[in-house]
Amino acid sequence: MPTNYSLEAYQQLRDSGLPPVRPAWGGFDATEAASLLELCIELNNQDDRNNPNLPDPNHQYRAKPAGWQLAYDSRQPGNTEWNRIWPWDGHGDNPNDIKTNGLKPLNNAWLLAQSTSDPGHVAIAIRGTVGERRSILADAYATTIPAYAGVEYPENKPLPIVFAATPDAEVHLGFGYAAFSLLFDPERGILTQLQQRLAQQAITKITVTGHSQGAAVATLIHAFLYYATNDERNPYQLAFTAKPALKSYLFAQPKPGNLQFSQDFARIAAETAYVINNDRDPVPQVPLSLETVSEVAEFVEEDNVSVGGPLDHVIDAVTSAKNAIRGSIAEVFTGHLADDFEETGIAASVERYFGDTAIELPDLKPKSLNYTLAGQLIPVFGLTKGGDCYTIGDRPDILLQHHATSYRKLIAMQLLGKRDDCAGGH
């Protein structure tokens, strides 16, 4: 187990489960997946659900989270009701408005649910992109940061936050900072709420879920929790009586990181992380991967550089220049995001967890944009124009295949065999 903050120390945690064995709580469960998608619909479809012109009180935007009770809602702390429209007196942020009810600066939101059949089992659900500038920015920051010590706060101060321990593993910058916001917000953040819950009740299982951007961020949170709960130093003060079992169901997942991150996640989340993607959904195809010959040959370069004649020195120079350019681009975005966090109060969490520790971290630079899926793929196959299952209406709908409600019907039909659920559906 690590005794310092070196990358090599965290690699011991990555490999601590070798040789791999099937986890007792592993395996894909379609019924479990369907129930967790309802948590995503609660978060993602709040604005649709609050439309007063919807004629049917049992419309498709209502979440139906069978087997789960709401334990914490970052949009309105204290809320324990599904599909709630909250009273608002006009002062402060409106909890019913998706443009204002998220955690700053990227307007992310999450909820904690408790299983009604197993009190020690909780689910963390992450909201996806909403139609608001700050949320969209999290998607738009499509460069990478190192998966280890890539998050900076304040600017130029890298934090020993671990999403992966494999060398050259990188994550999408926007998704990485969204995870940082959700985890470390001093009042409404995941770490704070887990600490408070653990003071009252043991947690033995954690399932992480999300749809769209929420799926990518949920992937990083699963990875973070793996390294945090396996670290015997307990750097985040989580009073688990035993290491919790982790699992995730990730719907319409945009690519959260590069190939090396995906490989690291495959090691730490084998048979416990499932990506449910629709083959006709455009969102899982982004961010667009950009892979050069130099990236493919990176380890060949590393093994052979400075061996041989002048050509090797040319290769070394080109590789160094390539990485310097990518690093400078990432620094611009990282600096901008670090500034945005100044008014969030997150400095208190940074001081709490990292302030008293003398940490010498490597100055790692991002090297790649070869984004790829992370987790075990469970495909569903979309229907042209939605078939008779989620039929397109009279207006164009470029995200017809992406909606969480479309995934709900595809999962019911293709993974649960409930074909009647699609009759006449929209």
TrEMBL record:
Gene3D superfamilies associated with the record: alpha/beta hydrolase
Location of the Fungal lipase-type domain: 124-288
Pfam families found in the cross-reference section: Lipase_3 (PF01764)
Segments forming a coiled coil: none
InterPro entries xrefs: AB_hydrolase_fold, Fungal_lipase-type, Sec_MonoDiacylglyc_Lipase
GO process annotations (BP): lipid metabolic process
Protein name: Fungal lipase-type domain-containing protein
Organism name: Methylomonas koyamae
